[in-house]
Structures
1.
Amino acid sequence: MEQNYNETKPVQKLFNYCTDCKPKPGSPEELEAFANIQLGLCNQFELFFPDNLASKTIVVIPSLSLDQEVLAKVKGSLHYEERLLCLLMLLRMPRANVIYVSSMPIDPVIIDYYLHLLPGITGYHAWQRLTLISCYDASPVPLTKKILQRPRLIQRIKQAIPPGNVAHIACFNTTPLERTLSVQLDIPIYGCDPSLVYLGTKSGSRRTFMKAGVPVPTGAENLTGYDDILHAIVALKDMHPEIKKAVVKLNDGFSGEGNAVMQYPGELCGRELEDWLKDNLIKILKPVSPDISVDMFLEKFILMEGIVEAYVEGKEKTSPSVQCRINPMGDIDIISTHDQVLSGEDGQVFEGAHFPADEEYRTTIAQMTRCVAEVLKQEGVVGRFGVDFISVKENNEWTHQAIEINLRKGGTTHPFLMLQFLTNGHYNEATGIFETPNGQQLYYFASDNVQSNAYKGLTPQDLIDIAMFHGLHFDGATQKGVMFHMISALSQYGKMGIVCIGSSRAEAYAYYLKTIAVLDAETEE
């Protein structure tokens, strides 16, 4: 019988994924569904997380769900998604599966670079349990939003979870976008409920510190606009006539990119200072990011709100941080301490970090962070977070003031995870030292901002060849050496990240200096 191709026939769909069946983002139904899904995290943590032979799947969503206009000022920000490739080391557990989702495909050379370091597991075995999924979308939109715009991709993620596996989402930070994705996938997030996001803002941080009894710089929070900024700056001068600078911070700024600094004009104070600032504040307020104008900064301030703080002065001043975790059972763990390396005219931009922090104060700031964690625990916070401090030494005594809570993973998360996964060691909170099972003490220097125009054009294969030839690559036998990350950013931006591991702070930093010298020599014209 002759087929009539003009007839209209029903077309069978490859996927019958119905987004209409899911609650609307932000609706009471979604909030209820998310809360119910999160209840399963306690059971997973108690029964499956400690079991290295358990069948489980980790869905890695390395989305930087942050203000995209500010994030766009960070060179190669798209490639920051690769920082969580350290979680591929979870494949050392022989029945664990990892699903890694990214905006753009990741070069197999980079994946192999991580997998060949897995202790006790062949690369082939790990590849069988790894699923790489890409949105093929380099637009300046958070990765999680890209995923939510692709129902078929969500279906592929669900189908990649083997039957019988428990699963959870690991992400950089949790926002309403990640909450919606959790509900779409019907699996929990090991992270903070987005409804608690205020606690991780600059204003929320100050409130939390004060509740925990932890000192903070003099300042004011929950400011909503230009007039609030002006009045807070004047009030600071009235309280501390000797003050020279003030810092204005967006509530949701990161890596110093949401800060601006102003210098007080001579001895003016009170009404005279207020009148002068009305005409001149816009002229003297200097955003830390050179790509953000004062007008843009103030527009962002109205949208995000923020704080004003006294700029902490000191001849001997450091910027340590503490990384902490509250697990689903409510237990608090101090994970690491770091001395941050900050750049910029006023030392506001995060460049890298030494691990662990200085022995003179690392246990002190860890204890202060534990007090902060107790407050956050009462609020219902779960997952990793970091606390940043400003520390000043005067008369041979250190004083510490807390300045920020990063209620998410941060710039010190992935370096420590790499150290932990590579060596199977642990951080001793009592001593502030990292020790391997054989008693070896290890240190590192890490940076997300190794950058030079001369490095542009280097491919991932080039970088790995250079590291191998010059003996820089991490050696599992000595448990020392160099690991690279954000490798995809190298060719276009001349930028990448690095973790240099040694048996002392000096040796770790020496690896860093050697790496820079090698790269400079290899790219010298």
2.
Amino acid sequence: MQRIKLIFTIFLIITFTSIIIGCNQAEGINRLGSNRSEIETGDLEAMPNNNQAIVSAHRLATEAGFEILGAGGTAADAAVAVAAVLTVVEPFFSSALGGGTWALYYEAAAGEVTSLDGVGPVGSNASVEDYAEKGGLDGMHQAVVPGAWDGWMLWLQEYGRLDLGEVLAPAIEIGREGFTVTQSLELWLDRQSQLIAERPDTAEIYMPEGRLLRQGDILYQHDLADTFEVLAEAYEEEIDQGREQAIQAARDYFYRGPLAEAIVDFSDTHGGYLTLEDFHGFEASIVEPISIQYNEEIKVFQNPPNSQGITQLIALNILKDDNLSQLGPDNADAIHLQVEALKLAFSDRYYHVGDPELTDVPVEELLSDEHARQQRQRIDMETVMEWPIEDGLAEGMNNTTTFHIVDGDGNGAAVTTSLGAQFLVIGDTGIHINNRMRMISVEEDNPNQLTPGYKVRHTSNPYLALRDGSLYILGGNTGVDNQPQGQMQQFIHIVEFGLSAQEAIDRPRFATTAFPEGTFPYEYENTLELEEGFPQEAIDELSLKGHEVIVGGAYGSANMIVVDEDDIQVGAEIRDESYGEVKESR
């Protein structure tokens, strides 16, 4: 950390000349200016009673978000604060510095929804041959360029009001003063105990006295707090030149300065694929989301490919004319319909979804009503589809966290940000690096095939729904392939079955495995897995239809916010330490 601080001044002299900054500003404006999704504005009044709501995977993160809203920040400012605190207290699931982020933002005053693409590409030194040999192992070779930080800086620039130091202050304080190890953190420390013990930089944090920290112990993240602080210092050094230039300084310090150098040095030493050129050339972007019209009132938004978010939309599009509300959440036919629709949606993901810069992703066709009708006709109420499932267009052509915020002005942020629980810390930076390469394919002609410089099909995909043009649902469900499945169930529970936000989160979940899973080595099992809590009658009926039912297990962590006509609800995951709250805005 001291080495990073010492070269900070030299870095500023080299980097922040007026010519370079002028170019960076111009490029930032181009990326932000024309990538919005226009919607019917409807009623754009503030939230009922000007209420604010936040739900996240940890009470400290939720409280930090409210602290930022109370200081006059927007949902975007609060989102960066929540992400930074989760980086400190939930290091097994996400990192604002070492991970990647897909997110959706609803700007109430403009009546617009945008998508944040904060995920980075495969490193330049990667190859199919090398990765195929060690894809099943943990290590630096699993890391792609971390894109989250640049994405968060874009949100601050476009939608934020507060200074970076103010937004990062809660994370810095918690990292320095320590926090109590939760049950979930202890669980992940136990799971990764051997890897942690083998990595000196990681062991220094999680085994400070030669033993693994346990629930109730105090965990400190001193190096991570120092790194957040030097990024805030980079911002402050340039604030006299304007907020946009100061944000650019914090971005450049990470991607074109000491932190990029530290990560690449570590990558070179430990068999990774990342280069300085990969960092220098990376920029996150704000892009147009994809969407479907679920009914006359409700429009559902998702993140575009390379995100897998289209999977949820395809499934909902297939189901939207089935009137599931007449069946109920425990009805075997309702479950069967949802499961079969998901199988078809995941087959579309397998055959067609990758980095659109590398492969032609037929988004318009996949989300068309005609494709939805054709796919629905493939569902038989008395039989079960199994993988391999034919391409529906052929004839015509847990390592994540999710949080959501609504501010007093009616702006909304739906976020799914991911790291991967490999507990690999980059030297004395405190940065935990991602393992997103697990989601890449080594198959020939696969739309998600490993290609240096292009992006992995990213599993993160929060969703956002508007009703009559106003904010309605912000939701997410973690767990790789469980994400679109759990999110579809959330939405159906609210819209079709009339449950509250918390009831929708509390409901037992199901997951199909009748498709190649999204992580190496892409296996499939053709099973229907049900969480404990479904009635035996439904289980028996599903088995009679041909489902190979397995009862038990857990299917990700879910959080959501529902904005109704006269109130606002949070649904916080009861299976872990998630915490949500609604407060009256000041």
3.
Amino acid sequence: MPANLTFLLIFSIETPVLCYYNISQPKSQQVDTKLKDCIFQKIPIGNYRAGGWLKNQLRLQADGLCGNLDKIWPDVRDSAWLGGNADSWERLPCWLDGVVPLAFLLDDPSLKKRVGNYVRIIVGKQQTDGWLAPCNDRRHYDLWAEILMLKVLSEYAEYSGDASVDECVFRGLLNLYSHIENYTIHGWAAARWFEALFPIRRAYALTGDKRLLDLANILAATGFDYEKLLKTFGFDKPREKKYWNFFLHNVNLAMALKSQALYGLFTEEGDDGFAENLLEKLLEKHGLAIGHFSGDECLSGTLPTQGTELCGIAEGMFSAETLLSITGNPRWGDYLDTLAFNALPAAFTPDMWAHQYDQQVNQIECSRQPDDAVPFNSNNGEAHLFGLEPHYGCCTANHGQAFPKFALSAIQKDSEGLAVLSPVPVQASDEINGIRTSVEILSEYPFRDCFRIKIDCPQDNRFHLKIRIPGFIDKAVIDGKEYPPGNFADIEKTFGHSVIDVKFVCTPRLQKTKNGMYILRRGALFYALPLKYRKKKSEYTRPTSAWASYNICTIHEVERKFPYCDYEFFPESPWNYAFASDNFTYRELPVFSPVFSPKNPPCAITCEMTAIPWEKEHGMCKNFPKNTTPLTSTIEKIEFIPYGATILRMSEMPKIGQ
């Protein structure tokens, strides 16, 4: 036996499995094959910072629920991954998936130290054969949590430069390879197998170990084939309540958007339009007025009281970021901006201490409902409350990835230079043509139409600067030159100390929905009628919502206590309106923090509205009014604010007479 082979005997319940692990790979087994490059590549996080309203939003997240879960929530604080007796499955990995980029992007010493301590504990508990997860029965363990933890540790190693964590990931991937040769993936792991391609890709770049390519191929062969599902599966709304399956699950589908493009980096196949076709199908049958598809939890149609799950929004954003980087298709930037500025912030209280499991486009009340009266497909009557873990705790753990990863995707580089993929306030630096080059976006986008791109090079540097022109604007004007929407402006010039002025030209307009009603949109932002409300706070303790029945945790008490308590909201202003005209007056307001707040919205549109007969039942408005005949002859001028800044709202409404 070669000296550099480690001999391990892994005991299963049935028969011992003999495995050879080769951590220091012989040169004969190393390969020089380079995987495909993405069109756009991320800039190292140490050279990247958020500014303006986006930095304030990240700070709110760090000071709110996400940044404090390890202090207050047993499923993270007492996780079995850390030696405790709480959740041993996805909750700690999900939380780390958001708090790791948050800590490094903010360069927050305290948060980085806490995260680093947890990573060291997890790495220190890795078993000698490479297995990570805290479980007693490997055969039946759903490997989704193992895959996710490997992804998170790979991300941490990239950000921190800690080679020992890369070594841990490499050994964990080889163990995964050995394990699935005997016990194939199932359940959530089968539905989300492609997430393992992120750590596999990094580990392969570092080691050139061909077994990692074999692992990628085995995962693809044994996991869900979403491309075949798209061709053969209807993706129709379940006909009966409480119906549930993996194929209709909105989070799985949001994640799966990137599956073919990601696997295409390992093969000659590529995405070949799969992601666009899948999203088109989902929006055709389940598209909500705010540009995302429903899912509470499974796909639930187009009606404005159907919910869409926060996890699905966060994962949809990550898929869009991945697809934009891999394919360079600006359509994914449009989808990403739409989610980031509308559906995402609408799911939180302004201080980010409470969140919803399900949000509704027309959300006139958030109060506990009898389960037989809720419109949701498989979620209970608390799913639309704001709180610590309404309905179920997966979004509590998983919501933290959305804003940090979005911020990190805004500026990237390609083979020709730099690319501004979303003009939010960020700054970054990297070497372009061997010259250290910095770029800063001076912006309050999407709340303002004009922004500046400031580029600094110590010497003249000629390269391409690509600026994504969103498809939802009328046109862009860059240094006096007009560009059409839906593509990239490609500016090639010699940069030194340069400033580029950009203006997005936007017009408020009503956008027709799948239900024959309308929603108001201007640029990246949807607008909604904000309702005045009365807030009811609930502090109490009850058992965990984690899957104790799946033997992945023990039942324990979870405390809801201010500021991480539950909230119900009750309307105190009229909501039964229709649009009376297409006359709109847009105005800018001061930009405060929190920017997504009904108290101080950064912009508003005055609309002409009229009251119509529209009924309420069980704390929710009916999906459609009785008719659109005005109740009075009065036309009211009412101010709409960004959808993402609302708590209670009406967003999708008819026009008079239609």
4.
Amino acid sequence: MRVAGGVVAASVMLAGAAAAQPASETPRDFETYTPRVDAVRIAEEDAPVIDGDLSDPAWSRAGVIDEFYQVEPVQGATPSQPTRAYIMYDRKHLYVGVYCYDSEPDQIRHAQMRRDLQLRDEDGIRILIDSFGTFRDTYYFAMNPNGARGDGLGENGTTFRSEWNTIWRGKARIVDDGWIAEFAIPFQSISFDASLADWNLQIFRTIRRHNEEIRWSNIDQSRGRIDMTNPGRLGGISDIQSGLGLEVQAFVTGSASYDHITDDADFEFDPSSNIFYKITPALTGSLTFNTDFSDAPLDSRQVNTGRFSLFFPETRDFFLQDAAVFEFGGRVFNDTKNGLPFFSRNIGIVDNQPVDIIAGAKLSGKVGPASVGAISARTGAADVIGVDGQFLSAARVSVPVLAESKLGAVFTNGDPAGVVDNSVAGVDFQYKRSNMFGEGTLFADIAYMRSFGDGPDDDMAGLEVAYRSQRWNGTLRVRDIGEDYAPRLGFANRTGIRRYNANFWRTYRPQNSFIRAAETGAWTNLITDLNDTRIDHFYGAWVEVENHDGDEFEFNYERGYVDIREPFSIAGELPVPVGEYRWNQYELSLELTRARPVGASIEVEWGGVFGGDLLEIESSLSLRPIKYFELIAEHEYSRFDLPAGKIGIHIASIDTIIAFTPDMTLSTEIQYDNISEAFAVFSRFSWEPVPEREIFLSFGHSAVIERENFPRDYRALSSGLSLRLGHTFRL
């Protein structure tokens, strides 16, 4: 149902006039400023059509937000363009409508169409929902003026997982005086505490041509976009339902593969499913059977030029669902994951090789004030890599304490490779106090873990104290990792050490300058053995400058010392003998914002290393000529010139995205490195005719391109084609 055009025009004019008023007639104290809005309940039959048009009569009854403030470029200033948001809900959905007024609609940036777009390069609206009152963890929903949708999870106010996707509807369109976005978020797509009177909410908008960010709450330049230290409050939500709370994701996958070496062909037909049941609105039980990960992207190509194993992030949907409840240790693991007690990627992947997951069960959410997470999975045998089937389990619980802090514990059991019996138990305390010393936030996170089972028991402890503000910032981190600490279901690539990190920096925001922001600081990283004998010591300083368009320039200096006690090889080829090495290294980088149709970056590092010379060049080029097409090309070159010899390492990738609509995308990843000589192509066609239904077609091809004969000697290894049909049933 639509109201008459004259009434709509009049209401829009009145809304625009109201929204165009200054954000506030009196200065705000943003240290304590906490805006609030009450969502208005509507009947299900009055629900708006989600089409990017706010003329449905229900919107005229919605709760209204029209007081937004700049965070960038000038904290607390009146935005250059007014914004008006509307909030309402029915029994099953939360509805958010946002009218982004713009006096120059032809200048609106909207160059992307794909799902999970890089919204920092666009005009956009983001909504953060903390439905548990954690002040740390959020559900994230976003759109640009094309209606391209993004969703994700914010963890602990610092980590963002864009890989998470859920079912929701959204549409946007450009109009004569700006653009409009409509969101319909099912309560079944998120978990929530039904006893909570108010949810935490943040809404913010970017106006990209000004590199301007405006927020409803948390008006503080030192706080990141997913930081929920001081959010707004969303009240009025009650008596909502998730239906029966049952969600069944059913998939059927047909695949064909061909081995170019043996001429063997293989055909498979595999059903799989994930089942989610909300035991309470705040607690979800999950089951997975014959889990299919065919839609997971390729891991970013890496070549190991150091002494320790590399870390690859989790990208699989089942493990990303409610992943925040498994977060442990807080800032202790911010800069490195070494010592992490639980890493879900170890379930179903052994030595970077996939292993079947026959079945798995997960419990995640809240029980009273406590956040709980538990997972157990049965993996299949993999004869190729000599691994038997395993039972793997992990559990995490945390409770809020004080005003903004939490106390928790973690436990894991199992070895993905089946070599030993292994368990890890740990406790952590994550302290946070905002508005410290008048303007900043103080963090103090501490964690202790112990591994036990076959072989010697050992432990790890870590502490970080950090202060963040608009001007002065500093960090002190200490970690002690025992020689025999072995989290088999976690990640540890260097044990038997003590590590001390410290940094300090100052941020500047000059007035009437081409510079938007600048920062300069110094850092140190000292590593000793458990007898406090120095092994590695690095220290340095940096300067970073950003202009108003978002282009960035950075210079770094590093003084390094390493005591190599066991020989190793760079990329497995160039030996580095035992010895003590000292060097100076320098780095220059320039990044031109991708908000333009053509974006680029280059980073050059040079200096000494391991008694010789190092040159590293990383470059990237992005093209977005039209909203339907995007290309990103990246190349890394590393040259080591050491007494033992020379080696040049190339890693190249090309990603292309063709977005026919916001719900239909063809993406292709191409990767190559000259060390493994491995060439890979992976294309994925994804179409969601409706949010509950999925058609997924993928093609993969691997080959070897021998670097000595490049580009002539190309040997195909394998090819595969897979079609997956999926449907989500909600009751």
